[in-house]
Amino acid sequence: MPFGKDKDFYQFKKIKYISKGLATYLPDCVSQYLPKHQPQFSGKGIRKNPGEAATAHICYSAWMRSLVSLYERELVPELNTVAEIGPRDSLGVGLAALLSGANNYFAFDIVKTAYNYCNQDIFEELVLLFKKRAPILNDEEEPKMLPRLKSYEFPDYIFSDEKLEELLDDVRLDLIRRALARLASSQQAEVGGDGEIDIRYFVPWDESGIMESNSADMIFAAAAMEHVNDIDGAYAAAAAWLKRGGIFINCVDFKSHGTAGLWNGHWTYSDFTWKLIGGGSQYLINRQPHSAHISEMAKHFDIVSDITQHKTNLFDKSDLAGGFKILGDDDLTICGAYIVGKKK
Question: Model pTM greater than 0.85?
Fold first, then answer.
């Protein structure tokens, strides 16, 4: 295997990734000369800034792909209350959900990064996309985005002319704008009160009682659950928030996120080395493989879809560290998954 042949080289490269951890403790005047972790791990967010219009189209497409995929599987969800774990640099996906008919949107985050873009500008761009019935970004435009669809045209069978007119009514759009303004000023309305749209953003989100049990129709987590240390607790919390039959959409990235020379090299590090690599980062990745996520989800959800992406494994099992030595061949090649669960 290539890793076995070039083992000394990859062991040497480990110094680079440990240096990333060291850089988190040093002032900028010194750390600027060292390799660094991806910006989001410091709590700053944004690796690339394509602007509000492009970001809105990405969020629109991520939401629409999931919605269309659910309809293709005859899992037509109610959309009164939608929650999102790890909204990243904006609330764009949740705003797309509101434009699709949701009245309440709750976002849960580890660090406060969802204001790296102007959410009001993102919202106005989303309104334009809905009004012109924009196509969904396809696999050439967004090759890493899941799930794949049969068609990337605007889903008229979900949004009829009459439905779209109702959703984009000026009064309703102003309700969403007011909810965004309340959020920006840290004022909250009662959920569903007097026909209001409610938007809430919880940082950190690991407090009990932040959302009413059995209240959410759908929870969306895109490239988020690989960063949650307590995945069993997180999946249990998501299940508690969802109504019976509610949908949990979970897109997980199992790659090393710039912490190793190989896409799955993070499974070759001892716990001590991993602690050095993490350094003082706000968060990193939990190193849990696909099987662990499926196992924890299955405690609370019926798994109705598990679409996996694969990459070649480039090391021997003998190179795995500690508890990772039990990983099977599937875990060592699954680099990403789009998993849909329905609450039992």
Answer: yes
